[in-house]
Design a protein that fits this description.
The protein is α+β, with helices and mostly antiparallel strands and about 1000 residues long. It has 32 helices and 21 strands.
């Protein structure tokens, strides 16, 4: 029988039962009389348990019913109307559309052949003959509402004011909107491909992408699609002329097929483009067509004179110019865009509009337009209050228009700035940033936390190790991560990731087998490590981190994140409480810690708690998906945890087995192909001996100094030769003499001859065997091929299980807290950036916290000095730190540095874009910036130098760059293989623990 756990009554009974059990355990503890310390511990534990149960009960509480489908759609439409109104009102203020008053642009009706039959436009009504346009923009909403079918096409020349008309129509329609009326939303048509996606599908996709709450799925449809189907959307399609010429016919066909009485539309287009499109296809059925008329000189003159500063007589610098303007200038002033640009360019005393009368400089209207477009940005950034010089601002905006806005849409999204970098730097930059973030924690832990993580034996080894991690990260970030957040993450993609991971790891394993085959057997802790191993181990480590992030779904081109609790009234308070609890747990662990190792979880708890508390102080931007309650987050974590654990374990174990088999095969070949040796033979100070039972030992014939050392985290000491490059914490003794190395209980041992408590007792001699001369080492470790391979495979397979446990936690956290930000209703780009930063830090802190808990369980379950050494701590720490560089915030950091170093943007990039927005060069659309007009963007990009690279060529260059990058990875590993030493014997000082 199914138990209704969601019922409040059942949840109360379960909670009371758990609390009663906890109190019973406390009573038993008090009755046993464990003393004050034991009693205090039990009281603290039970109190924490009850508090945790209460917190989980609050988390699992289901949200209230949100009403019927009609109510939900109406609320969504009203919220959309508020967002669109706020967005375009702010834009109208920046464009100074009401300062002092809008330009009075007129329009006139256009009949066939550019429009449909009059009886189709107004069935049953007599359509008056088209007149010479006495209609103004203030009547556009009235005209649209009078159309029975609700379809209007606005034609005009470039810069005639089509986009301004669309903006004013949106604001006017919103002002007249009543509950239940459709919401006007402006869609730039440049991103629509009618040959591959239908109009309704594209509108729903764009609406869900730019207004993320509408991406919520109800049944089988998104809320955006529900609004479309319910007739609650009025698309304002701006820029039909921006579609490719070859797509016009199909676009008109899609419009005629998919528009109906529940989907009205207003469409803008250049007059010439519309004429060609109609001639090659069909008209827009039942649509009224109007054409914007050029400004007459008197209207333009009145506007320019009203915006200029008058002198004592009431005249302005424009007065003599407009009294008898030359024909090119008169033609240019017929465009509202050029009038607005002229107002800005000659808005102060630094320029005199009289220069426009010079026929030598401005012989044609095109030259006047080029001059106004080129002078607009320096004029906008002029003035004594400017932070950036006009010339520098002009240069930076030219480069951004060309390099960032690769699609030519006029949009600048801060999370897309890395696209301006070369493909190689898009991979290397985040990898270097991840390396720096990890090194900032691992290096101090290695230096000042004995036994926490393995320390490097020298600076060259450190450099080699991090170079290997960097190379592995670069390959993994380029080939193992999904391209975008919307990329499929199914079994096929996981299988592809596993194959790529196996291929890359096999290359590294072959290099290991050639340079440093595991003759003695693989051990990942407290072992001498030759220099080539540092680089190759780093390659494996970088690949592992990348694989875990790929399984967790971190994309190469991430979107801004939102705070998951943004839609919850009590969410920030709960997050602050959890952060404070985790912080005090860290203090308790640090206060009771008696060993250096517990300091790592203490520091993790302190850092995670502090980050969570600070993140809880912000509500952040609205999220792209509606708040569904903590229960949905926990369910997402459960699904991600299961998926990540299974995928990472399978990939880790399989790849570990492959690496172990390859390196073991090389080791077996070295052992069994070595020249035979005679019992009793001596080689380089070591005598080889074999008993009748086949047991082999070696005896040193030259007196040497040996040390007995210990490391925190190991239960037994180990012996090394003096001068061996290996880290230890305590020296327990030393002696000078000879030793006899033999195998006991599957371990290489010597009898310690020095003083101290270990005198006369066997101690670990694994590092003495590794440092033996090559001939002596090969002879001593001779064993069957299967045993050699098995000894190499077991540690790598064990490490694969560790990868699965940690990767599962990371995948669960990253998938559960993957809440995209609402980029359309965002307060601004900088606010979205701050929210993404806080969400990234909080997500990384939780991932490191859970991964650390799993590692503590594994550490307690494994014997000290096990086969994986301190690798669990090294992976645990980097799961939280490395992912910071893979967020939109982290990738923007690398893009900022590159853009500034190459002179493409200032160091204060976001501040500069804010200033450009304030000065009217850019407009703001939610979290996006857009150039004021597409012609301005095209003019800036064309003068950036070097011309614009066609998109098809960019794609070809990207493919070639990717192939060169893959060849570079293989070449580096191959070079290490060819240039490395052929002998596996390490000198006495060549190695260290890892």
């Amino acid at each position: 029988m199914r138990v209704p756990l969601r019922e409040a009554r059942v949840q109360r009974r379960v909670g009371l039962g758990m609390a009663a059990a906890a109190l019973l355990a406390l009573a038993v503890a008090l009755a046993r009389g464990d003393g004050p310390d034991g009693t205090s511990m039990w009281i603290s534990a039970v109190s924490a348990f009850v508090s945790l149960c209460a917190f989980l009960a609050d988390l699992l509480r289901e949200p209230a019913d949100t009403g019927t489908g009609t109510d939900r759609r109406q609320r969504a439409a009203d919220e959309l109307a508020d967002a669109v109104h706020a967005q375009w009102m702010a834009e109208a203020r920046l464009r100074r559309l009401q300062d002092p008053e809008p330009l009075n642009v007129h329009w006139s009706r256009v009949g066939p052949p550019l429009a449909d039959h009059g009886r189709n436009i107004r069935p049953g009504a007599v359509l008056p003959e088209p007149r010479d346009g006495d209609q103004g923009l203030d009547r556009i909403v009235e005209t649209f509402r009078a159309l029975p079918r609700g379809r209007l096409v606005v034609l005009g020349e470039p810069g005639a004011g089509k986009t301004v008309l669309a903006v004013r129509f949106v604001l006017g329609a919103l002002a007249a909107r009543q509950p239940g009326d459709p919401v006007p939303v402006l869609f730039p048509l440049a991103g629509w491909d009618p040959r591959s996606v239908g109009l309704r599908d594209w509108l729903a996709e764009r609406l869900a992408a730019e207004y993320r709450p509408l991406a919520a799925v109800a049944g089988e449809r998104t809320m955006a699609r529900e609004l479309l189907d319910a007739g609650l959307l009025l698309p304002v399609l701006d820029g039909f002329d921006e579609l490719p010429d070859s797509a016009h016919k199909e676009a008109l066909r899609c419009l005629n097929v998919e528009l109906d009485e529940r989907l009205p539309v207003l469409l803008t287009c250049r007059a010439g483009v519309w004429t060609r499109a109609v001639q090659g296809g069909d008209v827009l059925t039942a649509a009224e067509v109007v054409r914007l008329r050029p400004l007459d000189l008197a209207t333009a003159g009145r506007y320019l004179e009203s915006t200029a500063r008058p002198d004592g007589s009431g005249s302005t610098p424009w007065t003599p110019v407009l009294r008898d303007p030359p024909p090119p200038l008169a033609e240019v002033l017929g465009s509202p865009l050029m009038v607005a640009l002229a107002r800005t360019v000659y808005g102060d005393d630094s320029r005199d509009p009289a220069e426009l009368r010079d026929p030598a400089r401005f012989p044609t209207a095109a030259r006047v337009e080029e001059h106004l477009l080129e002078a607009f940005v320096p004029a906008a950034f002029g003035g004594a209050d400017g932070t950036w010089s006009p010339d520098a601002a002009h240069r930076w905006l030219r480069r951004l228009a060309r390099d960032v806005d690769t699609a030519g849409t006029g949009r600048l999204a801060w999370w897309e700035f890395p696209a301006a970098m070369p493909r190689a730097l898009r991979v290397i930059g985040p990898a270097v940033l991840a390396l720096i973030a990890s090194a900032a924690l691992l290096v101090p832990l290695a230096e000042y936390g004995p036994g926490v993580v393995a320390n490097w034996d020298s600076r060259p080894s450190t450099v080699l190790n991090y170079a290997g991690i960097l190379l592995g990260l670069c390959f993994g970030l380029a080939r193992l991560l999904p391209a975008t957040a919307r990329s499929p993450h199914g079994p096929r993609q996981l299988a592809r990731t596993a194959l790529r991971m196996t291929g890359a790891a096999t290359v590294v394993a072959v290099a290991m087998g050639l340079l440093v085959p595991p003759l003695v057997g693989s051990r990942l802790g407290a072992v001498l490590t030759p220099r080539p191993s540092w680089f190759l181990n780093g390659c494996c480590f970088g690949l592992i981190l990348s694989m875990m992030f790929g399984v967790a779904g971190l994309p190469r081109r991430p979107l801004p994140l939102g705070l998951p609790w943004a839609g919850s009234p009590g969410g920030p308070r709960a997050v602050r409480a959890v952060g404070a609890l985790v912080f005090f747990v860290g203090l308790a662990i640090y206060g009771y810690a008696r060993e250096p190792v517990p300091a790592v979880p203490a520091i993790t708890c302190l850092a995670a708690g502090l980050l969570l508390f600070l993140a809880g102080l912000r509500r952040g931007e609205r999220t792209a998906t509606p708040y569904t309650g903590p229960a949905a987050v926990l369910r997402g974590f459960r699904r991600g945890l299961l998926r990540g654990f299974v995928a990472c374990t399978l990939i880790g174990v399989c790849v570990g087995a492959v690496v172990g088999c390859v390196t073991g095969a090389f080791a077996a070949y070295r052992i069994h192909s070595a020249d035979p040796r005679v019992n009793g033979e001596s080689t380089e100070g070591w005598r080889l001996q074999e008993t009748d039972e086949g047991d082999r030992t070696v005896h040193s014939t030259v007196r040497e100094e040996f040390l007995l050392v210990g490391r925190t985290g190991l239960d037994k000491p180990f012996a090394v030769r003096k001068g061996a490059r290996i880290s230890w914490d305590d020296e327990l003794g030393r002696f000078t003499g000879t030793v006899r190395i033999e195998e006991k209980q599957d371990q290489w041992m010597i009898v310690w001859k020095g003083g101290g408590e270990w005198k006369g007792r066997p101690v670990d001699a694994h590092n003495l065997v590794v440092a033996l001369p090559y001939e002596a080492e090969v002879w001593l470790v001779h064993r069957p091929v299967g045993t050699v391979v098995l000894d190499a495979v077991v540690p790598f397979v064990a490490f694969g299980v560790l990868i699965g446990a940690i990767g599962g936690c990371a995948s669960g956290v990253y998938r559960a807290l993957n809440t995209p930000s609402d980029t359309m209703r965002a307060a601004g780009p900088r606010s979205t950036l701050r929210t993404d930063r806080d969400a990234t830090l909080a997500r990384s802190a939780i991932a490191a916290l859970l991964a650390g808990g799993v590692c503590l369980v594994l550490i307690s379950a494994m014997p000290p000095g096990g086969t994986v050494g301190t690798m669990h701590t090294e992976v645990w720490v980097q799961v939280g730190t490395s992912s910071l560089a893979l967020s939109a915030w982290g990738r923007l950091g690398t893009a900022r540095i590159w853009l500034a170093l190459t002179g493409r943007a200032p160091w204060r990039l976001m501040g500069f874009l804010d200033e450009a927005h304030r000065r009217g060069v850019l407009r703001q659309s939610g979290a996006l910036y857009e150039f004021r007009h597409l012609r301005l963007q095209q003019s800036l990009a064309a003068t950036a130098g070097g011309g614009m690279v066609p998109l098809r060529r960019r794609s070809a260059l990207s493919t070639a760059s990717r192939r060169r990058g893959e060849a570079f990875v293989a070449g580096v590993i191959s070079a290490a293989t060819l240039l490395g030493p052929r002998s596996t014997a390490a000198p006495p000082d060549e190695g260290r623990a890892h």
